[in-house]
Amino acid sequence: MKKISKYKIDKSIILPLILFAIISIFTLYGTGSIIDNDLGNLPLKQTIWYICGFALAYLVMTVGNTFIYRIVWFLYGLGIISLIGLFFFGTSINDATCWYQIKGVGTIQPSEFMKIILIITNATLIAKFNENFPNPTVREEFFFLIKVMLVVLIPSILTFLQPDTGIVLIYLLITLVMLFVSGIRYRWFAIVFGLFAILIAFILIIYFISQDLFVNIFGTSFFLRIDRLLDWSNQSGYQLENSLSAIGSAGLFGHGPMTNPIYFPEAQTDFIFAAFASHFGFIGCILLLSLIAFFDIRLITLALKTNSLTNKYILAGVVGMLIYQQVQNIGMTFGLMPITGITLPFISYGGSSLLSYMLAMGIVFNISNENIRYTNKSGI
Predict the structure, then answer these.
(1) Who contacts 178 (Cβ-Cβ below 8 Å, separation ≥6)?
(2) Residue 100: beta bridge partners?
(3) Is the pLDDT of residue 380 over 60?
(4) Do residues 340 and 332 lie in contact, with contact meaning Cβ atoms separated by under 8 Å?
(5) Of 45, 154, 289, 344, which has the most beta carbons under 10 Å away?
(6) 2-41 burial code (b ≥16 CB/10 A, e <16)
(7) Sheet arrangement for strand 106-108
(8) What does the alpha-carbon distance between residue 16 and residue 121 come to, in Å, rounded to a whole number?
């Protein structure tokens, strides 16, 4: 039997990551003329973040998933402490206190890492429940869901208060995806969506009846978030209008990799897909979307092949997180989704977000390597 290397890398996962890195750095370089000079050399910074990210993924592979699963509650506690610390030591940017300012490094956003910690925590909880209760009663499922809700609610409240609604939505979505994959009774999802619909209706009724009352109850920050959402529904807003103009004017092949005829804010993060589309046009967008789809499908295939429940649920959470962010980020540049400040994974600039994704990829590489060992097959 051929011996499989401990650190064998699945080529169908690593190659798209390398291509994402090239696309990200090249797009950032091309958008230099519409990015604030105070941000510094973003292509160089992104290159450094990618190097650190691959190093982090290798470190995770060296440590191993078993050790990470064993200390998951320590990681969860560390994540909660980092979110609480923002209220005392955080740096405020654009009326949000989501970052720690570290001299010589830049800003670090704890909520980005909390996404991955929450995926691991949920996965271990769900796997343990399914192992202990192979045929759970309604009562057993109810108390299990209460436990999961508390685990998710604590970081959600802390992140919402920063405020960062976009990350909170990711917390909730990855939890729903993982619970759906776990096989619990579907009636719970109907109850959750019903309660959520009632809550949304209550909030909107107060908003339209009296905006002053809304501000008194929920605060100015939440009012502005609702107002921004309604701007999207009306297809209005400076960012959206310029994004649509940049994409629409690009044609089949784009304006060129260094040409930016239309300015729009946050071209390096929230609207990097619009920048890419402006440079490379319809053909370039199709190629990028195909690469993203291939990567997602590969992760889904890996989830279907793995025998470990914990690994399966982690992959479900990672895939749910990535697909939601991809759809949300790309959709908002076309006006199909509300503008929430959610970045495009592996493409948008950002140290914390990129490091968190590469942390997840280190876990994915370990799962892939474990699957290769079981099947005695080399990576694709």
Answers:
(1) 119, 122, 123, 126, 313, 316, 317, 320
(2) 108
(3) no
(4) yes
(5) 344
(6) eebeeeebbebbbbbbebbbebbbbbbbbbbebbeeeeee
(7) 91-93, 96-102, 106-108
(8) 27
